[in-house]
Amino acid sequence: REVWVIVTAAGSGSRLGAEVPKALVPLGGHPALTRVLINLSQVEDVTGVIVTHPESQRELFAQAVPAQLPYAIHLVPGGVSRQASVYAALELLSEISPQSLVLVHDAARALTPPAVFERVIEGMLEGAVALVPALPVKDTIKQIRPEAAAEDFPLVLGSPNRDALRAAQTPQGFDFERLWAVHQKARDLSADEAKAAPDDAALMEAFDYPVRIVTGDELALKITTMVDLKLAEILAEEQPI
Ligand code: C5P
């Protein structure tokens, strides 16, 4: 079965305050996206990769694609949201490989080791419907009302049992046909309902597909804040490519 990886890289990275789009932030001398594509070249069984880029920056993103990758590569303009970007990539995949397994991965998780991709692919080939790499949570999570988030001292509603929580990462693995179907259905949802689906696995959950967890990796951290970026820079220095 063909295995395709969608790398979402169309975000602006405004929370980082960097001057380049987040996916092109240099980490140990190489843009984040380049690191993802090189790590993917060490993953067995990858047929092709689709990168979503900010619409106006195709050239810049093309320059971050290393020459001579062992898989096919396509660049697709992303959309206004991550979900819209994934949709655009799935639309291309529906034309070129509708029978495939698909992994959806955030370029912002630039240091994700090849072994994580391999674990997800292996689980999918063994018959999983949807697989999410995840780790136990370190912090105790406090639940508040979303409407209270802007208050100075929002009221705590409760503290879910930590043993019952996992922090989700990417790459998330899916059967293409099912993921494409739920993305098409989700397009018809109102903006409010769509908010309830923060990642692709959540969309599958919303349509009652069984989503399972596979062990993630601390190196798959999502580079979101300045502190994440500093940490990723230090870690990348230790991983020369
Ligand atoms: O903004 P956030 O950190 O949630 O983005 C997660 C991933 O989705 C990033 O890799 C980002 O580049 C990507 N993204 C995208 N299209 C958007 C917004 C985000 O591909 N419109």
From TrEMBL:
It is an enzyme of class 2 (transferase). Keywords: Isoprene biosynthesis, Nucleotidyltransferase, Transferase. Its EC number is 2.7.7.60. It comes from the Bacteria. PROSITE patterns: ISPD. One of its GO terms (molecular function) is 2-C-methyl-D-erythritol 4-phosphate cytidylyltransferase activity. The record marks R162, K222 as: Positions MEP for the nucleophilic attack. SUPFAM superfamilies: Nucleotide-diphospho-sugar transferases (SSF53448). The record marks R15, K22 as: Transition state stabilizer. Catalyzes the formation of 4-diphosphocytidyl-2-C-methyl-D-erythritol from CTP and 2-C-methyl-D-erythritol 4-phosphate (MEP). This is 2-C-methyl-D-erythritol 4-phosphate cytidylyltransferase.
